[in-house]
Amino acid sequence: MIVVIDSGVWISAIQFGGIPAKALELVTEVDDLAICSGIEQEVLRILEQKFGRDPKTIRFRMTPFWNSAIRAETTGQLKGISRDPNDDFVIECAVKARANILISGDNDLLTLGRYEDCRILTARQYLAERRLG
Questions:
Q1: Pairing state of beta strands 114-115 and 32-35?
Q2: What average pLDDT does the segment 97-112 reach?
Q3: Is residue 113's pLDDT more than 80?
Q4: Quick check: 34 and 69 in contact, CB under 8 A?
Q5: How far apart are CA 124 and CA 51, in angstroms?
Q6: In this model, does residue 133 exceed pLDDT 60?
Q7: SS3 sequence of the chain
Q8: Which pLDDT band, with edges at 50, 70 and 90, does 80 fall under?
Q9: Domain count across the chain
Q10: Which of 10, 12, 73, 110 has its Cα between 20 and 30 A from that of 44?
Q11: Would you tell me the crossing angle of helices 55-68 and 18-30 to the nearest 10 degrees?
Q12: What is residue 39's predicted lDDT score, i.e. its pLDDT?
């Protein structure tokens, strides 16, 4: 399966660990991770600005994940999908990557439940499904 992880889940995994970190670990063990530059930039920006993390340290920590991920670049052409227009690029990333699952904690994305062939799950839902399957 191909899985996109929304920036909020990345940030939670890095900053707090817990369920998001377990989901990230499982994705890298059993599935194919996909990402776009928009998600990368948002993760770096928020970790630096909101949490005071050093950008070089963040990049160093993320490089193994992001370098091995499927690259799916967005164009901004997919619009009007999410209640929050700022989330549309995440859905576009999933579509371009042909992702089966988008892991998110964002209610604007989670309320969709699915977009085309991609299901939108929380980190907890992903863990429950993939560990049983």
A1: unpaired
A2: 97
A3: yes
A4: yes
A5: 24
A6: no
A7: CEEEECHHHHHHHHHCCHHHHHHHHHHHHHCEEEECHHHHHHHHHHHHHCCCCCHHHHHHHHHHHHHHCEECCCCCCCCCCCCCHHHHHHHHHHHHHCCCEEECCCHHHHCCCEECCEEEECHHHHHHHHHHC
A8: confident
A9: 1
A10: 110
A11: 40
A12: 96
Report how far residue 74's alpha carbon sits from residue 122's, in angstroms, rounded to the nearest whole number.
Answer: 22
**Cα distance between residue 80 and residue 89, in whole Å:** 10
Q: What pLDDT digit, counting tens, does each position of 24-49 carry?
A: 999 999 999 999 999 999 999 999 99
Contact 112, 90 (CB under 8 A): no
Of the candidates 53, 61, 54, 102, the one whose C-alpha atom is nearest the C-alpha of residue 81 is 102
CATH of the domain at 56: 3.40.50.1010
> Inter-axis angle of helices 123-132 and 18-30, to 10 degrees?
40
Domain that residue 90 falls in: 2-132
